[in-house]
Amino acid sequence: MSGKFDVAIVGGGVVGCAIARELSRYQLKVAVLERAADVARGTSGKNSGVVHTGINVPADSVKGKYNVAGAQFFEQYCADLDVPFDRCGKVIVALGESELPDLEALKAKGEAIGVQQLEIIDRDTLKKMEPNIEGAGALNVPTAAIACPYTLNIALAESAAAGGVEFMLNTPVLDISGEQDSFEIKTPNGTVSASLIVNSAGLFADKVARMVGVTRWRIWPCRGEYLILDRSKGDMINSMVYPVPPKGGAGLGIHITPTTDGNIILGPSADYTNDGDDVRTTAKVRRQLLAEATEFLPVISPRDVITAYSGMRPKLVPSSVGGFGDFVVAEVPEAPGVMQLVGIESPGLTAAPAIAEEVSKWVRERLPVKKNPDFKKTWSSVRRTREEELGVIDELVAEDPGYGEIMCRCEMITRREIIDSINNELNATSVNAIKYRSRATMGRCQGGFCGPRIVDLLIKHGGAPESLTLNGGGSWMFMGSTEDLRAERKAERARAK
Amino acid sequence: MVDPKLVDVAVIGGGPAGLAAAAEAKGAGADRVVMIERDERVGGILPQQIHDGFGTKVFKEALTGPEYSAIYEARVNERGVETWLKTTVTGLSRDRVLTVRSDRGVQTIKAGAVILAMGCRERTRGAIGTAGTRPAGVYTAGAVQYYMNVSNLAVGRKVVILGSGDIGLIMARRMTLEGAEVVCVAEILPQPSGIAGNIVRCLEDFNIPLYLSTTVVEIHGKERVTGVTLAEVGPRMGEKKGTRRFIECDTLLLSVGLIPETELANDLGLLMSPATNGAIVDESFHTSAPGIFSCGNVLQVHDVVDYATLEAEKTGIAAAKWAMTGKLPDSKINITAGAGLRYVLPATISGEDAIDFTTRPWEEEHDKSIVFKSGGEVLRRLKMPHMEPAGMIRVRVGKGRFRHVANNEITVEVED
């Protein structure tokens, strides 16, 4: 796998992959080094999926600049990449009268950064818009939107790969030596040489920065737990429902967010941890999320919860300081030739397209480029069929009967969609790679029925059972065949004798 | 899409209930019976249940799951039921038009009667809210049964089982026989969820400990499960302080209950029972929507397949009768579950026929009676030496007993 690249991007989150796609417009040798078995496995795959307007960020900040710029072309961006997007709007709800002045302050802040159509609405108007929501009034933010964050991240990566970018999965960066034009990046799979480096390592961006001699940052991982509700309960709300942001809090408060797949998610909590990989869920936060969300949406029942998961914010400020730090989008004097993208927490998803344009400009100022004829202007990772008209489904089935056979009944995912996911552009082979591309196993039965059938298909498509993993690394699904296990026991007993 | 296919009876689901209902609908004279199954084979989970013990009530012998399933598969084929495999019902309307999707495309079926026999899904880790990491190695019991018995895959070496449902107990034995070490079974309730026979045959015979009033409070391991934390729970399911202990394992198998797959029924707005999570039915297994019937595990979770079969056979006959004549006995007598019982089915009866009632107690009881009462008068009293929530109770009440029903109301309850 060793080779000489123009640009090495460390980290396959949404920022790294947006940059990879942007650079695939040009004839450049680009590599993305990702430690996990697939892209979108860190912060980028597990967040609220909100396309922020910019209302919560200071107008004069770095994050404000990229947030506002990214939000402007996000819808077209998703359309080009066949990523679900919905401008469902947002209401920031004052639970009691005492919070009403906070709404005015938020409105002024939003208007200062240029957010359009902001409007304070009273209790009755809120009730008309959101009959199930309790509140004394709200700030209506109709331009806020949602997108499917992992589908976007995957589509960015796959379109870049199809345009010639090399993706090195299961490839953690161990160390970096050399300097601009001749960086040597050490990985367990060999050394990668590159002229320029992009540090988009998210939760580990401080460590990557240190490898090139930059010690000024420290990432403070801050876990956010979510609960996801059954799709049959998706119509309880029409828009995103946010509380007034807690002052000095690490997040925007527990909100109730629709997903582009018709679920509702509750969360995220905000708990600092020492380990960016510590994405556990806890009983305490589960109770907290249900209790806080129920204040706004009393009709929620614990029985509606299909599962819980956690994401992790790469914060630049410790809990003792609180609140938010600004994004770092800069090449710093200690390390010429390295673009540092550090502390990209919320609104990183919204900002990613604009950050990518900025980084592309930075690369082109340093390397001569020509247009890449293989650039994929549009991309579709997996042809989804769930929302299709029946007539269209008939046409698809005529093309391939696999479009008619529903394997994941909860999410209505067909055999063909699962096979397309297996044959993905990145050659990602884990079980979760199939899940995040097809959505199969994400529904109420959590793969109880289709999980084993997907495994059958994976094995049929060449995956040896003992090499199948949930998430790469040591996340093995099986220890082999039942015969293997019996033989192992027999040998054990023989040794004992 | 072409014009809807016209049938007399459409059966949704080809598991044990669907097979029996379809066979009997056809046997009762319905001309065109179609059975729709999403999997590539019929039988539901029977084909993966390679242990024996099926059929002791219906056939008076212990068969394996595949053997039991094969009998009914042959029966539907002999009788001329049309079976559509790898076909999913995506829509069902109150006027009994089904939209189905398969490798033939989208089709519609207009049915005289529809039988809902979709069975159950397993409750998952997410549904019960087990905290901790999300590593590989957390499986539901039914999925493991498929992996081991159909795909011949070994899911792990050292296993903790949460929940003492019957599939979990069967899998404790199965995994032990296949060379895995089952460390223990933890059950949050103070009594087992599976039937007593399985506790003996699957746990005690293999020296597998069963910890009651105990649950998994945390899952450990970043990539693969490395262990679980167990804790005891008090009478109100709260964790008892100071009872946490770590158990090393590489697999957590969940057998924590079944949820009826009622999504199609919910969309129809059928009257549903909060106790069973299934539809409310009369003595003909007729739901609140005319011409729509329900039986098997989607109606009520059965402990033994034989009873699901018997229930489905009656449903098939009733659905055929409805499809051909539009008539069924007028169920005007309400049945109410009283003290000590979670529910009683059917919810209404005509009083013109003997009825096999099914019910489950809230708690384990000894030397009590189940009593059918109407207007202060006892219609039937049945001595129950032993009752447990894990075991479904069946009580036959002859039609003569219904002569003295007052105000069309019968209450069923547990008495000393």
Can you offer a commentary on this structure?
The complex is a heterodimer of chains A (497) and B (416). Helix content of chain A is 31%, strand content 21%. Chain A has 497 residues and is an alpha+beta fold. In chain A, the strands form 5 sheets. In chain A, strands 1, 2, 9, 10, 11, 12, 19 and 20 form an 8-stranded mixed sheet that branches. In chain A, strands 13, 15, 16, 17 and 18 form a 5-stranded antiparallel sheet that branches. Chain A has a 4-stranded mixed sheet with strand order 6-7-5-14. Chain A starts with a strand and ends with a helix. The mean pLDDT of chain A is 95. Chain B folds into 3 domains: 5-121 and 259-328, 3-Layer(bba) Sandwich (FAD/NAD(P)-binding domain), CATH 3.50.50; 124-256, FAD/NAD(P)-binding domain (3-Layer(bba) Sandwich); 334-415, Immunoglobulin-like (Sandwich). Chain B is 21% helix and 34% strand. In chain B, the strands form 7 sheets. In chain B, strands 1, 2, 5, 6, 7, 8 and 20 form a 7-stranded mixed sheet that branches. Chain B has a 5-stranded parallel sheet with strand order 10-18-12-13-14. Chain B has a 5-stranded mixed sheet with strand order 23-21-28-25-26, with no helix packed on it. In chain B, strand 12 (158-162), helix 5 and strand 13 (181-186) form a beta-alpha-beta unit. In chain B, helix 4 runs parallel beside helix 5 (166-177) and helix 5 runs parallel beside helix 6. The radius of gyration of chain B is 22 Å and the shape is globular. The N and C termini of chain B lie far apart (61 Å). The mean pLDDT of chain B is 95. Chains A and B meet through strand 18, helix 9, helix 12, strand 23 and helix 13 of A and strand 7, helix 3, helix 4 and strand 11 of B. Strand 23 (480-481) of chain A pairs antiparallel with strand 11 (153-154) of chain B.
